[in-house]
Amino acid sequence: MDILLIGGLWLSGSVWDDVAAALEPLGHRAVPLTLPGQGDGAAAATLDDQVAAVLAAVDSASGRPVVVGHSAACTLAWLAADRRPERLAAAVLVGGFPSADGRPYADFFEVRDGVMPFPGWEPFEGPDAADLDEAARRSLAAAAIPVPEGVAKGVVRLTDERRFDVPVVVVCPEFTPAQARKWIADGEVPELARAEHVDFTDLDSGHWPMLTRPAELARILAEAAGAADSRAQAHRAP
């Protein structure tokens, strides 16, 4: 099964290299995406451009792929579910949740000169970055790609309620499945409150498990793909 990998803010597709290498022996084709404005050499891009890139990957995938979104890009994975509900086997959300319709995509930090640069480590002190040593922090910060303002401040538009039928797996790195369930029950994640099939998986890591726990994350993604395939076969059975 094809597994499309979408990194969060400031990340290019190369952040998934170790996960992709671990997925191949597990029988899956990993497709890391480099998003417009986040590693393709373009200085500017919009949220629509990034959505279009994700949809192009979905449309060119073999069979029904699993779409994986990390952090803010959980919203991109969910937008793929909204635009292509019949094409996705599942959406896997790593360390984040989808924004609701009408909300900004990722207007979290200061925008300067048309981009939102990596803000440094202060906002991420605590569980987010607890498993990153100083060398890993320097490397991640040095490779961080400023996010175009048109992406960060783009408005999320969700229109197809069939997205709620797409199976979802929430991977919980710096928070627990119990916390995630509570946030959903308390109305903080309205999109997942309406989803029909939501599973939760714990992963003992910080916010960037593709860097610190790539083998474990690959195993979780492979399990999600296997469950999605089993669900599809059961649905097709007479």
TrEMBL record:
Q: Name one GO molecular function term.
A: catalytic activity
Which Pfam families does the record cross-reference, listed alphabetically? Abhydrolase_6
Q: Tell me the superkingdom of the source.
A: Bacteria
Q: Which SUPFAM superfamilies match?
A: alpha/beta-Hydrolases
Q: Which InterPro entries match?
A: AB_hydrolase_1, AB_hydrolase_fold, Sec-Metab_Biosynth_Hydrolase
- Domain AB hydrolase-1 span(s) in chain numbering: 3-219
Could you identify this protein by its name?
Esterase
